[in-house]
Design a protein that fits this description.
This protein is α+β, with helices and mostly antiparallel strands. 28% of the residues lie in helices and 14% in strands. The strands form four sheets. The chain has an eight-stranded antiparallel sheet with strand order 3-2-1-14-13-12-11-10, with helices on both faces. The radius of gyration is 21 Å and the shape is globular.
């Protein structure tokens, strides 16, 4: 970090450029005059080429209390990052899928311990891969197993190499998953599983009677006013999109990385909405989602989930099962990772904080103790472990130091 940072921040505060009041009640704050708190805190990492630009967000129960955009959304054109820049939030889609499942649980349309085969016939005769050949698993895969990444489903892609997964419908995709041998006994081992979350999306379709994409649109995006969030970003949204980058192995410079996971054009609604990671969004839209969660499942007079349901989703579901996340000190809830013992990157967070990150370095944590959500939006494809990145550690530390009382 630059040595001048503490003095510079002190000068900002002394001149009356005060940080926004993070009070729990009252009108939404005016975000037009923003402080450069995060851009200063992350300046050295940006100068070193760890990321091209970022949008940072802190949400309180009354709304966004800090929203800052800095750096570049595109290096080649020198297009600046803006507060309404669009990001592929990738696996930050997973908790939305999980909340959709829990909505249906609240409505009595399915149970957490229902076998997946009850909804998807391809799962009825699953086998378990063993050194001595296929065997019958001790029990069937359940909805809870899918939510906690303990299903044992295959990690194989349902599409041939080079073919984007969004060219295959969820029915065909989950038929493939169900007919592959399990790689571990259900409930016995944590192994991060896109297949499991995609299967939940198909269960939503079967139980609700509508497509997964339509379900998310009707239950979340439309009522929350998330107009710049979509599985199929429009041409206008693409024009605001932050370019993903990776580091050139020879020079260490950031170079455009692209995204081979999706077919083109992105606005083509024939592309499958991917439950494990298909959403594109903005910080301003995500404010609505995380404000709703901070308020216990309700926003602007509309209830999305019961408060006790959200508490269950943020509660450890796996006991002392080892290796339950990408980072140490973590537990697994229902679709959310849960900070059990804050340490390293999560050292500034409260125990019980829950959230999820994305493949291109995005991250959102909801801290129920301090009643804050911390959202970092970047597009960096090749971080060795974005859950363990210095970018996240410094962002979270700065958020807590300056926007929590």
């Amino acid at each position: 970090m630059r040595p001048l940072f503490p003095a510079l921040l002190a000068a900002l505060l002394a001149t009356g450029c005060s940080l926004l009041d993070p009070a729990e009640t009252g009108p939404k704050p005016d975000l037009h005059e923003q402080n450069a708190v995060f851009s200063y805190a992350l300046q050295e990492l940006q100068d070193r080429g760890e990321f091209a630009g970022a949008v940072t967000l802190v949400v309180a129960p009354r709304g966004a209390i800090a929203l800052e955009a800095f750096g570049l959304a595109d290096l080649a054109s020198q297009r600046p990052m803006r507060r309404d820049s669009v990001f592929w939030i990738a696996s930050m889609t997973k908790p939305i899928t999980a909340m959709g499942v829990l909505m249906l649980v609240e409505e009595g349309k399915l149970g957490l311990d229902d076998p997946v085969a009850q909804f998807l016939p391809a799962f009825r005769d699953q086998t378990l891969a063993t050194p001595s050949g296929p065997a019958k698993p001790r029990r069937a895969v359940t909805v809870r197993d899918l939510l906690t990444h303990t299903s044992g489903l295959t990690g194989a892609s349902p599409t041939p190499a080079g073919q984007p997964v969004d060219t295959l419908g969820l029915a065909a995709m989950t038929d493939f998953y169900g007919r592959q041998p399990l790689i571990s006994e259900p409930g016995a081992k944590w192994a991060y599983s896109n297949a499991g979350i995609n299967t939940l999306g198909r269960i939503i379709e079967v139980v609700s009677g509508e497509s997964y994409g339509d379900f998310v649109q009707r239950r979340f995006l439309e009522p929350l006013g998330m107009d710049s969030t979509s599985f199929w970003p429009t041409a206008e949204m693409v024009g605001r999109m932050a370019t993903p980058y990776r580091k050139d192995k020879a020079t260490g410079e950031l170079i455009a990385a692209g995204n081979s996971r999706f077919g083109e054009p992105l606005a083509d609604r024939r592309r499958t909405a991917i439950p494990a990671g298909g959403l594109f969004s903005t910080a301003e839209d995500l404010t609505q989602l995380y404000q709703m969660i901070l308020l216990g499942g309700e926003l602007d007079g509309r209830r999305y989930l019961k408060a006790e349901t959200l508490r269950l989703m943020a509660t450890n579901q796996l006991g002392d099962l080892p290796k339950v996340s990408f980072a140490p000190g973590m537990h697994m809830g229902l679709g959310f990772h849960v900070v059990h013992a804050p340490q390293g990157v999560t050292e500034s967070l409260s125990a019980g904080t829950f959230g999820h990150g994305g493949a291109y370095g995005t991250q959102a944590w909801i801290d129920p103790v301090r009643r804050r959500a911390y959202v970092l939006l970047i597009q960096r494809t090749d971080l060795p472990n974005s859950d363990g990145s210095e970018i996240r550690r410094l962002f979270q530390r700065t958020a807590v130091e300056h926007f929590v009382r």
